[in-house]
Every structure is written in structure tokens, then in C-alpha cells.
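Reopening this ticket.

The earlier resolution said the output was attached, but the attachment link was broken on my side. Pasting everything inline this time so it's all in one place.
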Amino acid sequence: MIRWLKKFINLILPPRCLICGKIIENDNALCPECFNHITFITKPYCLHCGRPLSFTNLDKDLCCPKCLTKKDSVFYLSRSAIEYDEYSKKLILDFKFSDHLENRYLLTQWLIFAGKDIFDTHPDIILPVPLHYSRLFQRKYNQSAILVRELSKKTHIPAYYNILKKCRYTKPQVICNGKQRRKNIKDAFIITNPDFVKNKNIILVDDVYTTGSTLKECAKVLKKCGAKNISTLTVARVIE
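Inline output:
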């Protein structure tokens, strides 16, 4: 009965590509043309930060030069599913600002694929990067929290939405450069229950990794409260 009802609905309102709107066969998917424009981040990439590497024909995992010189990174692992570019931009911005919440199903599938080695470390909890209450009121929802909810359903890793909070309103990061981003976001987050994150392996989830300033500030406050390992998982990453 449900199958026939779905066929009837699809006949009246056929599934459409999440980017271009072309009629397609399956719900919450992309047409072949739009899918082929998406650049997935696959190996070879940095073993630590997940940044794509230009080397080819490698038989072993390597770290990028930036990670090799770092001694105190707050992240255990960082992974992103796709590159943030002119083709993926619409998919993410529609989800983030234009109430296209149906995009979450496809984006969550990509997160699971990209985060395989993070999930293999047996994380204890998943946390979304929070929004300040004033921005949450304007947007009506936190896109990172929606991704976390779907991710938790698929992976059965507990998700919590009020442990990490944004306590200070900040300017949108998109209007700031690298140094301004770090200053803008400094001391903007608090942990509501420090004992809850102590000795925990945590996944921090956000939609886009640009410079990493927001994720790093979140990770710092978690580390101060005794979190063991913090890995980041984002849908897209800006590749410099």
C-alpha cells in the first residue's frame, strides 16, 4: 500500500534534482550532470587534516606539510566529503538558509562515507557547532544540528545539542578574513556540563570547513574540559 502511494505521489510530484530541479528517478538525489560536477574528497588526502594531496600513485598514507610542522593540533582527525565550490555551493546554501531540509538525507550519506575512519575510532558522542540564540531565531534551525540528528540515527552514536553552546554573538565568519575570523570567534563558546565531555572521544559536525577557526575554538573549550580526542566532520571544505 505504501509503495503504491509513493508511486502515485511521484507521478503527481516527481522527484527533482536537489541542485538544478530536473526530474529524476529517486528522491533526495542529484541528476547525473550535477553529480558529475561535485568534487568528492578522496584519497590521497592528509592522514590528519583530510586536505587533498597532489601526489598520485601512493601506496601509503601521508600527512601534508602543514600538519608535519604542527605539534599541538586540537583535532585528532578532520574529514570533509566534498570540495566547496561553485557547483556544491547551491546544495549547501539552500540547505542552510532556504529551508531545503530535504537536502539533509543526501548530505548525511556523504558525511558517513567521508567519516569512515573517524567512526572506526569508536567516538562516544556527536556534537553540532552551535548557533547563537539570536541567529537561531532568525534562521529557525541550526543546519549542523539537523545533520547531527540524521548522523546519529544512521550510526547510533549519541548526539547532544546543549552541551556546547555559543554564548556570544559574533559577526558572520564569511565577512572576515583568516585573522579576523580567529578574533571574531574567540571565547564565543562554553561547555554547559564539563563532566559530560571529560575523557570522551567527540565528533564535531558543521556544514563547511573554511579556515577551521570556528571548529578550533569549539575544540579548545572541549579540550579545556577534559575531552580526550576531538575529530571534525564537515560536508564541504574550502580548498585553498
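Reporter confirms the inline version is readable. The chain has one domain: 16-237. The chain has a mean pLDDT of 91.
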